Known about the structure:
With 197 residues, the protein is mainly alpha-helical. The chain is built from six helices and no strands.
Amino acid sequence: MRKWLIPGIIIAVLVIWSISSYNSLVVVKADAKTAWSNVESSYQRRNDLIGNLVKTVQGAADFEKGTLTAVIEARAKATSVTVDPANISPDQLAAFQQAQSGVSGALSRLLVSVERYPELKANQNFLELQSQLEGTENRINVTRDRYNEVVNIYDKKIQSFPSIIFAKLFGFEEMARFKAEAGAEKAPDVEFNFDKK
Length: 197
């Protein structure tokens, strides 16, 4: 009976250690998925606000239809791009970022063109929506940063010994991170030339 005691203890320790390692991998991956859900929620809030903003701006009778159409089309394209949070690949994330960049660009053009419409700039609904959009852009940035932080924890965990054994065994793979867009390090040229039509 004694000869089985030490091997039994060793086996029990290994089983407990294995369960603990696997469970910790599951926890950090679930945290990363939750962080991704928060990113999507922030983008969804922006898309919802854009609909209200477009309706408010459409109230300005002579507002440029092309600008509004660009915003509506960019929003539709962005909402059609989906990412599987269980297997976020760099390609999926790049497509998602590209679609969201289209929304950001169209929205920026819309807000710049509003400068020509003093009655719209003074509209309380427009001012409130613009303020909410600015806050939402900040939320998006914060949630992307938090997502990257959680993915960093996850990636370190699956690459550390002994977790790497279980990560390889059970197919835990690195997750994609948000990266700055190409050219983001350069300051944009801002031009306010409202004489062009």
